[in-house]
TrEMBL record:
Descriptive protein name: FAD/NAD(P)-binding domain-containing protein
Xref: SUPFAM superfamilies: FAD/NAD(P)-binding domain
Species: Grifola frondosa
Entry keywords, A to Z: FAD, Flavoprotein, Oxidoreductase
GO molecular function: flavin adenine dinucleotide binding; N,N-dimethylaniline monooxygenase activity; NADP binding
Keyword DNA-binding tagged: no
Length: 618
């Protein structure tokens, strides 16, 4: 790879940068660019508050982060520039309120006056002289405006909304059901204005990227229910917590995709809850918190093969017969110990999980809690209908029909049947083609395959898995646009340590925008070939996830990479491209897999990049 790609002699820090999105990725990107000396950085968000998925209007009571490993640990889901305050008495579990307050504090301290709220991005395009034109709609006034930036970073995520199966919504429960059931709940995703005539699928004229749960807090207030005065909570749909498992009995689902805490919340409120699913997420759990050398080290990443195997230990584990046996033994033992920790019976449908080795659908449930999803199932407060899928509504208007023939009565239905990209509506076909964000069939010019013994017997993958690829280099830059250094992505890398990864990516983007010497592909063709190879790796490494998540997202040209447990290796790749130290947690040949990774390791990345830049000038 070439050390750098030539840039115009103009200092890019004197030009404008637009950061779209004020979530975890957007905030650290803006902060890092400002620290690097970019004088004009503006953050655009359609929300009233910062936080993205953790914005005030989206955090609901009882929300706890259950993403595997570091993200769910209080004090670890953060940036190096700002410690997280000590937790309340929750056993160290990180809550939605914790994240919202932390991100708000970060923005107040470092980004005051840099964030533009309630500015909805309607369209992004490039003009004839290479500037980015962003059409904005003011959500308060409805005023339209076009702003211009020299460079932009898209930090909106790639899994904002959900996609409903419309034929299932053609017939819904009658209005009379509202007065006959003790509770009402409804979930609706706005695909087109007013496409659903039913009282339980509530049309919304805007805000189509969010699902809204409507709960009648007092079952006797049917008059208020009819008038639409219902209490509302919002939450972000995330592939990390997606499953077919959490569906209240007053809420039946076809391929449900939202956190189990929602089902637990409904059950804890006294509602009758039934969950319909075929296969659910794997989870990590233990009677006591796992030690840091397991939860926060490289151990899980070493046992999860990367696109290249950097160390002798990784090569032994993933390319030898004995090594593969040890890897499988570890993951199987981890699954079984998690089942035992939460008291999941041998014959429980909750054991119908996706493999944590092959899948990225893994949650961290921590220690048992009496009000958690699994405990409520064990206590009979949440019923299970599995394995099954919802096929249709019953003719009586008060029931649903499952794939196994069972008929379940319900007052309302929650459907979440997939994902749509946050980018589909803001890039027209011309811009997607010009920038290189469109999907395409895999190239036949070269076949990629990794002869890892641990990947010898993959789960069945849908045929669509092999039909599409993306051309996004490292999940950060469209390969076709890589030489221009004026467009990048942050927040599109699917990992279990978002704080650490997003911060490293922000530094990578800052170096990329500044024109620093980096180990990037020397040509656009080489960048496209690298992206093609990475897409082939994802198809082999995570075949079911690639099919279920990436191919759906790619229908709107939304690329994604899945380091997940192997995020330390992915971060090392980015650090290496910047010419910085890798494997920063240290350790000897014997101890390095168990050394705790801490975000403070990357607190000096700016100074290291400055020093490297100074040396190269002489």
């Amino acid at each position: 790879m070439a050390p750098s790609i030539p840039l115009d002699v103009t200092d890019p820090r004197t030009e404008t940068v637009g950061v779209i999105g004020a979530g975890m990725a957007g905030l650290i990107t803006a902060y890092t660019l400002l620290q690097d000396g970019f004088a004009s950085v503006e953050v655009l968000t359609r929300d009233k508050s910062i936080g993205g998925v953790w914005a005030k209007e989206r955090v609901y009571p009882g929300l706890q982060i259950n993403n595997a490993t570091a993200n769910s640990v209080h004090g670890e889901y953060r940036y190096s520039a700002l410690p997280m305050p000590p937790p309340d008495n929750r056993g160290g579990r990180l809550t939605g309120d914790d994240m919202q307050k932390y991100l708000e504090t970060f923005a107040d301290k470092f980004l005051e006056g840099k964030i533009r709220f309630e500015a909805e991005v309607v369209n992004i395009r490039r003009d004839d002289i290479g500037k980015w034109l962003i059409s904005i709609s003011d959500k308060k006034t409805g005023a339209q405006e076009v702003v211009t930036y020299s460079r932009i970073v898209l930090c909106t995520g790639v899994r904002i909304g959900t996609d409903l199966i419309l034929h299932l919504a053609q017939y819904v429960f009658s209005r009379d059901a509202a007065t006959q059931k003790s509770q009402i709940c409804c979930l609706h995703v706005q695909l087109k204005p007013h496409t659903s005539p039913a009282p339980y699928f509530i049309p919304r004229s805007s805000d189509r990227e969010w699902m809204t749960l409507w709960l009648q807090l007092d079952p006797n207030k049917t008059k208020e229910a009819k008038q639409g005065r219902l209490h509302r909570w919002r939450w972000k749909i995330s592939t990390r917590v997606s499953s077919r498992r959490t569906c209240p009995e007053n809420t039946i689902s076809h391929d449900i995709a939202f956190p189990p805490s929602i089902a637990a919340y409904l059950a804890n409120e006294g509602r009758n809850v039934t969950v319909v699913f075929e296969t659910t997420d794997a989870f990590l759990a233990s009677t006591k918190p796992l030690p840091d050398f397991i939860r926060k080290s490289r151990l899980l990443s070493v046992l999860s093969p990367h696109i290249h195997l950097r160390t002798r230990l990784e090569r032994f584990l993933h390319t030898t017969w004995l090594g593969s046996k040890l890897v499988y033994y570890f993951w199987n033992a981890l699954v079984e110990s998690s089942f035992q920790a939460l008291g999941v019976p041998k014959d429980s449908p909750l054991r119908r999980i996706h493999s944590p080795f092959w899948s990225v659908r893994v949650n961290d449930e921590g220690a048992p809690r009496p009000n958690s999803f699994h405990s409520l199932v064990n206590d009979g407060k949440i019923s299970l209908a599995a394995p099954a899928r919802m096929e249709s509504y019953g003719a009586d208007g008060r029931s649903i029909i499952l794939s196994d023939g069972r008929v379940l009565r319900a007052a309302a239905v929650i459907l979440a049947t997939g994902y749509v990209s946050s980018w589909g509506g803001i890039f027209d076909a011309k811009t997607r083609e010009e920038v290189g964000m469109q999907r395409h069939p895999p190239s036949n010019a070269r076949t990629y395959h990794w002869d890892y013994t641990t990947l010898a017997n993959p789960p069945h993958a849908h045929p669509d898995t092999q039909q599409w690829a993306n051309a996004i280099y490292r999940g950060l830059v469209p390969a076709k646009n890589i030489a221009r250094r004026d467009f990048a992505l942050n927040g599109s890398v699917f990992t279990t340590n978002n704080g650490y990864v997003c911060e490293v990516i922000a530094h990578w983007i800052a170096s990329y925008f500044r024109g620093d010497a980096m180990r990037l592909p020397p040509t656009v063709e080489d960048a496209c070939a690298d992206a093609e190879r990475s897409a082939a790796w994802i198809r082999q490494r995570n075949p079911t996830c690639y099919c279920r998540t990436l191919t759906v997202l790619l229908c709107h040209s939304a690329p994604l990479t899945f380091p997940f447990f192997r995020w330390p290796q992915a971060v090392d790749d980015l650090l290496e491209e910047m010419g910085l130290q890798i494997m920063r947690s240290g350790g000897s040949w014997l101890t390095w897999p168990f050394k705790v990774i801490e975000v403070r390791e990357i607190s000096t990345l700016k100074e290291e990049r400055d020093a490297k830049r100074a040396v190269l000038k002489f």
